[in-house]
Write a structure and sequence with these properties.
ABC transporter involved in vitamin B12 uptake, BtuC; 3% strand; single chain; globular
Length: 380
Amino acid sequence: MTTPRSSSPPPLRSSGERLRGDPDPWLGGASVLAAGPGSARVLRRGERSVVVERRPLVVCLLLAAVAAGVVVGSLVLGEIQVGLPRVWATLTGHGTAIEDLLVLDLRLPRVLTALLVGAALGMAGAIFQNISRNPLGSPDVIGFDYGSATGALVVMLFLDGSGLQTAAGAVVGGMATAALVYVLALRNGLDGLRLVLVGIGVGFALISVNQYLIVRSNLYDAQSAAVWLVGNLAGRGWDHVRLLAPALLVLVPLALLLARPLRMAELSDQTAVALGLRTERVRLAAVVVGVLLASVAVATAGPIAFIALTAPQIARRLTRVTGPNLVASGLTGAILLGISDWCARELFAPRPVPVGVLTGVVGGLYLAWLLTREWRKGVA
């Protein structure tokens, strides 16, 4: 006698949830952790609730510890080393004049700028890869960084603007580029591959525009702009920290508010709409926040390549959960840029190279590997 099969339907999965063993295309087919008992907790307050998953929380705490280690290492290690006790004495106001110069005036603002820029790029990359549903969908690949650079160059070279005005020009250029790419790619809905392809084309056109702007400027300004376009953190001081930190204090919470809708948006549009999500409105809001994050980063340090591309994918492999992984991506981007800047500064001393050169070499190799993997999967 056989046991009759149950006719009850399988339980529905929540947005973005995968059972243990389910393949995730973002992880190259690797399985993700189950959002079941023991792996996640639901925190409730009144009618609001939030799911806290154990592995992403542990990963973010470890990444925060590594970021703090990057700060300490950048303050201690260098051509002139300052011992950890003397660093602490300097930070508490008991350092010598040379220690104050090295730690407070040169190294600390530079490493803080690197972490803030890296965090902005990492979160922007996570947002755009989520929207496009494509690992190549980062602001440096789809041209938004080049648009921000165009706006900043116009202010720098022809309007002789201040740092705040340059930042505003970068934001305007990035938003205009995003609007152009979004409109050109929007046909019967937003297709991720079409967004990437259109963005790449617009990005190459903007590279030519940027080169033309440099050629039309005077020699001194052209040299400064050419160095800035590579992506550079040399000479960054407290003015840059004070410019970038308030912007992130506003943009990061806005990005985190979009985390749950973006996780739902990874489902098909029909399923997301059935769950009550206004997909186009969410994507438009995410584009605005992502472009603003990328623009303020470009305005501060120039268009640093490949941090926005690699950080979200590394974070996703570490957390092994779906969704944009905004916090983990931001911390990963901060660590990558902080370490890259230290290597560009110290490993090539006494003639340090711009950090964009180092990230371009490493990121280019990563992009070649990524394209090869996508081609083998039949995606690219």
